[in-house]
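Subject: complex prediction, re-run

Hi both,

The earlier run crashed halfway through, so I resubmitted it with identical inputs.
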Amino acid sequence: MSAIIEVRDLRKTFRVSERESGLRATLRAFVKRRYTDVPAVAGISFTIDAGEIVGFLGPNGAGKTTTLKALSGLLYPTGGEARVLGFVPWRRENAYLQQMTLLMGNRSQLVWDIPAADSFRVLQEIYKIPDEQFRRTLEELVELLDLEPLVHKPVRQLSLGERMKVEFAAGLLHSPKVAFLDEPTIGLDVSMQAKIRKFVAEHNRRTGATVLLTSHYMADVVALCKRVIVIHRGKLLYDGGLAALASRMAPYKLIGVTLRDGADGDGLAQYGEIASRDDARVTLHVPRDDAPSRAARLVNDLGDRLVDISVEDPPIEDVIDKVFTSESVS
Amino acid sequence: MIRRYGRLLALFAAVETQYELEYRVNLVFNVLQQLVVTGTSLGAVLILFSYTTTMNGWSVAEMLILIGTYYIVQGVADSTVGPSVERLLEHIRLGTLDFTLLKPANSQFLVTMRHFKVRNLFGVLTGLIIIGIGLVQLNAALSPLQVLSFILALACGLGLVYCLLHCLATLAFWFVRVENLLVIYGAFVDAARFPVDIYPGWLRLTLSSIAPIGIAVTVPAEAMAGKLDLLGLGAILVATILAWTFTSWFWKFGLRSYTGASA
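This time it finished cleanly. Structure:
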């Protein structure tokens, strides 16, 4: 497989003005601004192969969007190198822009007052999409996203979820080989999120496009990405399989025990740290390696009192949260 | 290349016209407003000329040609570059310029020609009519050379206004909010209703250099009135080419400072 996206030691520092609150500080800042340098991306490297869907994770302000913008050619980095499809993104060559897309869940590229169909026509002209290909791609997108009733209404009359679907169609009309998706499901309800997810997976399967996705909804990442890249404060914390992230970051498992006679979980404390208790069900934290033996002991010791027992990985949200608060993986 | 951008321009205009036609009442009021504004400014000039026959060498007929040219320049600027530049400021502030920059086409073209207010083209029509009246009053034969130099000078004038507006908007990369600069621009535009040579030195200088809106209107009007020599025509041509080159460079330079609004 060939690398589609190559990033080496990418850096971007923003210069931001800062001042304290209050009128006096404001007046002072009006005359003389004080600037500080904020390293949004502080040297990250990774490569992504053709057709991969990679989750790009990090808390707010980690540098995800800055990285995506640099890779889309919108920002000149302060240092480092990047190549996408063989192009240096920030040279913004038309041949590169023609093959990539950046979709942002919180921004809209469609013109508010006119139906999406008109915006699509403008996009067709800008991207020089031949009529036949345009018709075919649009048909496919309309079918996959169920857009038929939406494209002829002025965009302002669409709901947030509907608009996002149309936004997706607009971003993918030119069949890009690389798609950067920045929080594509933000603010959408659960079923719309699921639809968008299904669409991204299906589109990737059909077109083989490479996708780099950021999301705060772990469900998006779990459903779509086998591989995740975690960054925090502009630095790379983890790059690898989603499953491996759990075992590496959360060296414990959860054993759920349901007892026939309910309550009295205190006796269970000897098997592991009690994480939660809910009527008859008790959840225990146990070291990952000890999980099988502890579970066996529980079955043995509790005998008839035991109604149900389960051994699970901790929820991915907790794992990620742990990554962000601890800061040091690997 | 030119064909492609021509097609894009036609498409932008078509899409925006559709949008304008959605708001019919707005359109009617716009035309009414244009008529009122034209009427009052014409009235003011006619009152002025009821006391005198020439104003700094400009007769009433030549003045009409100038006012007509003014409405043409203003009408074209207000129907294409003006609205696009206004949106550009908004795009820079909100970070939605991202989408424009992602498109595989000349970004300068996309930001200055994307949005149309077709209704303002009514001003162009008004301008043409007023020039017609002026020519009849002037009662002199119109040579093809005059018409040609008028068209050339007008194209240069429009080019200069384009450059001015685009440069003003580009400043938003550094200062974010520059709407007030556009208001100052508006004030200079108003001053262009009169020939640039009637103003005191400093204002004449401003209207012919930093804010070349003055010469953008006066020079083509001079051409049509037969008052322009080849030197003047050459000067505006060179000025336009220089302004155009600077504007392209300034825009690309500004783009480097664009950080986008953070997500």
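Chain A has a mean pLDDT of 87.

- K.
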